[in-house]
Task: inverse folding
């Protein structure tokens, strides 16, 4: 085994590396045009001011950024995004964790349950958005009908049109779509927790809750971190669900950064401002990605 | 069976109950979608609300299928998704092979760089794609959309194929080489057949991503000639009175082409070998 590995190392000289990169050249070329070029261009645009009526560009240094940081709408969307991401991550983590535990507990029908529970994750955003728009409909929606029939509410709830509830309603719909990602990540992690560890803890007289908190959660920590980071990134990148369901309203209460940037760009034609805002969003995500890569790298260390 | 020794039937029963409840919460909106799509519009307004249609009808489906704009949009979606899938695989399979099997550890930094592109927020592309596509006259074209979608599918596909190639024992290649196989023969006869499940999964992933993509399609297409089905759904929404029956019928039709591929890849998910790109 050692020898084979050694031989492979020898075979992987500079020539093979060069050949490998040659195989990758077409991909790298397209990625350069489709990702690096626009990303760089976006960074440049952030330092220019676009005049939509004259179709001219003017270099303005950091003006776009200063304008952002002095804008109430920007800070509103900044705060809304924080609440949005936190709410989504928390809800998905709690639900995903318990579902993963339950899945790990059972033997029969495990495949059937996980197949059903995964469906929202592969459903299209637009379908989920219009579906929940219809479910939340104040007069004709099935959710209000259900709550009224059960006597939980006295009159129809305005899920999406009240500033207090709109964010919550969106978080519920979005988490419904995304919890399977957390579920499957944690379930995968749970399968690496040896059953003997759990049994030993129980024999030692540890209570079930204690076992969970003291043993299962620490062992699952890498998976939990991965799940949290992934759902954080997806939270920051959100766009489709909010734009279809509330378009940022009412009163900006659901205007996450993605929508704010979209409106700056395509309603106000403030291309420079929108580019600057997207960079601010990007920096927030970069921090998260840096964390993610640390964990992903550990998990994905080459086994060969 | 690790569950065996841990005897706590009550806990197991609770797990089943919880999963049944969670499955109900997941399944209910889809059932409601289908029920609405076959319900005559008069029954939307009955009080108390009738959950199941008393007189089921296919009227909404016919309305959608008679709408030439919708059919055109479905065709556009199919074309874009197919082309994106083909290009994604053509580029990512050789690249993954080169970086994983040929460059080995030296290919790893590049793979990580490619993977991290997966997490670029779409918002940083809003404006540059718009300006660049306008510059080369590709706004409102399917070609422009294909280009934009590749920025999403390429990193994911490369990572997924790379993951499946990494699992391939190197001894197989060595043995074939000793038997006198050329590099090309090794790739065709040994590497590709063994890596094919991973490649198929990556292809399905690319197709599904392109099929349901919404943001770029919304920003870069305004004419029916290039609009995809998800964007057309959005235009249904913009109408004065939203016709939810037609909307749900369209949603069902839009979901169908994803259902079959999903049935294939969900096994991949359940194996729990969802590394890196698959999670995204």
Result:
């Amino acid at each position: 085994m050692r020898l084979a590995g050694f031989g492979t190392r020898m075979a992987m000289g500079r020539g093979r590396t060069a050949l490998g990169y040659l195989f990758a050249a077409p991909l790298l070329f397209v990625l350069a045009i489709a990702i690096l070029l626009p990303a760089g261009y976006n960074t440049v645009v952030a330092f220019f001011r676009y005049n939509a009526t004259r179709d001219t560009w003017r270099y303005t240094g950091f003006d776009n950024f200063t304008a952002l940081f002095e804008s109430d709408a920007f800070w509103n969307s900044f705060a809304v995004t924080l609440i949005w991401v936190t709410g989504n991550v928390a809800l998905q983590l709690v639900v995903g964790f318990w579902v993963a535990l339950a899945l790990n507990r059972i033997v029969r029908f495990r495949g059937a349950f996980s197949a059903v529970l995964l469906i929202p994750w592969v459903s299209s955003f637009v379908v989920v958005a219009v579906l929940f728009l219809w479910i939340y409909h104040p007069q004709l929606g099935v959710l209000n009908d259900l709550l009224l029939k059960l006597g939980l509410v006295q009159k129809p709830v305005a899920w999406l049109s009240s500033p207090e509830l709109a964010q919550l309603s969106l978080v519920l719909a979005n988490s419904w779509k995304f919890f399977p990602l957390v579920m499957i990540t944690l379930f995968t992690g749970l399968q690496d927790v040896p059953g003997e560890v759990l049994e030993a803890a129980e024999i030692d007289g540890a209570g079930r809750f204690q076992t969970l908190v003291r043993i299962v959660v620490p062992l699952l920590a890498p998976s939990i971190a991965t799940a949290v980071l992934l759902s954080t990134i997806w939270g920051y990148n959100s766009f489709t669900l909010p734009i279809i369901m509330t378009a940022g309203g009412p009163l900006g209460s659901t205007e996450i950064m993605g929508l704010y940037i979209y409106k700056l760009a395509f309603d106000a034609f403030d291309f420079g401002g929108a580019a600057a805002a997207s960079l601010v969003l990007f920096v927030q995500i970069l921090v998260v990605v840096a964390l993610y890569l640390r964990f992903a790298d550990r998990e994905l260390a080459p086994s060969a | 069976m690790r569950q065996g020794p841990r005897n706590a039937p009550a806990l197991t029963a609770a797990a089943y109950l919880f999963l049944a409840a969670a499955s109900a919460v997941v399944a209910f909106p889809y059932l409601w979608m289908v029920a609405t799509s076959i319900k005559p519009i008069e029954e939307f307004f009955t009080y108390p609300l009738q959950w199941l249609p008393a007189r089921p009808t296919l009227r909404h489906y016919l309305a959608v299928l008679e709408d030439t704009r919708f059919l055109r949009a479905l065709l556009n979606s199919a074309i874009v998704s197919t082309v994106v899938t083909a290009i994604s695989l053509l580029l990512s399979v050789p690249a993954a092979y080169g970086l994983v099997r040929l460059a080995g550890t030296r290919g790893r930094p590049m793979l990580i760089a490619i993977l991290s592109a997966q997490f670029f927020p779409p918002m940083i592309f809003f404006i540059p794609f718009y300006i660049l596509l306008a510059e080369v006259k590709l706004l409102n074209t399917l070609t422009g959309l294909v280009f934009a979608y590749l920025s999403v599918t390429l990193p994911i596909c490369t990572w997924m194929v790379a993951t499946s190639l990494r699992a391939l024992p190197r001894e197989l290649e060595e043995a074939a080489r000793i038997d006198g196989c050329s590099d090309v023969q090794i790739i065709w006869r040994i590497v590709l057949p063994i890596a094919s499940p991973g490649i198929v999964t990556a292809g399905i992933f690319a197709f599904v991503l392109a099929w349901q993509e919404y943001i770029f399609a919304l920003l870069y297409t305004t004419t029916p000639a290039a609009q995809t089905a998800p964007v057309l759904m959005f235009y249904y929404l913009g109408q004065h009175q939203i016709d939810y029956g037609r909307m749900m019928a369209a949603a069902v039709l839009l979901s169908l082409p994803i259902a079959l591929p999903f049935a294939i890849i969900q096994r991949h998910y359940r194996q729990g070998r969802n590394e890196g790109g698959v999670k995204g």
